[in-house]
Amino acid sequence: MSDQSISLNKYISSTGMCSRREADKLIEAGRVKINKTVAKKGNRVLPKDKVFIDNKLIKKKPRAVYIAFNKPPGITCTTDLRERDNIISYINHPLRIFPIGRLDKASSGLILLTNDGDIVNTVLREENNHEKEYVVTVNKPITKAFLARMSKGLPILGTKTKPCKVKQTGQKSFSIILTQGLNRQIRRMCEFLDYKVVTLKRVRFMHLTLDSIKMGDWRNLDHNEIAALKK
User: What is the value of pTM for the model shown?
Assistant: First the structure.
């Protein structure tokens, strides 16, 4: 095997198409070819090879893009352009980008988008304990028992949530800092305690905040912010 070869999923992510995990899904679905042969997981790519997705040649990586976006409610964090309110069409960036993680459709706030497939696993890897901070309003007054149980962890989705920081900010509102990202985690935690989320907004992702980004707007990250993301 040549030392110049590269794993197929890494090659695809390096073009900015998607993350390695998403590349694996494309490979498993039989949508990827190396030259004229349908690819399999574990295949490697040589410098002379051409890689196709849905019979379209994927090209060399464009300049790296890292965006902080203040997502409005009603926008779906998907790259599927068939979804009416998809995040990609809403932002309408000239380069192909995709979200790092997701916020559910009803939620708002900070989400990052990029064309750098290699950074996704670094940012989202649970053992890195990257903090995500949210402000939440619920449908009835918050009690001390609610705050204590939320912070200690609750059984949802067949597991128990990690201990987290929870602080009351109003009669029916609180802030919460998570280091994991289970599906609809905060909403499920509240439902477990017989509360319903009314509004949910992410205000911080690691070192990045919503400062100066209006709802529906986005900005490019600066060099220092990008460097901190990659650490």
Answer: 0.75
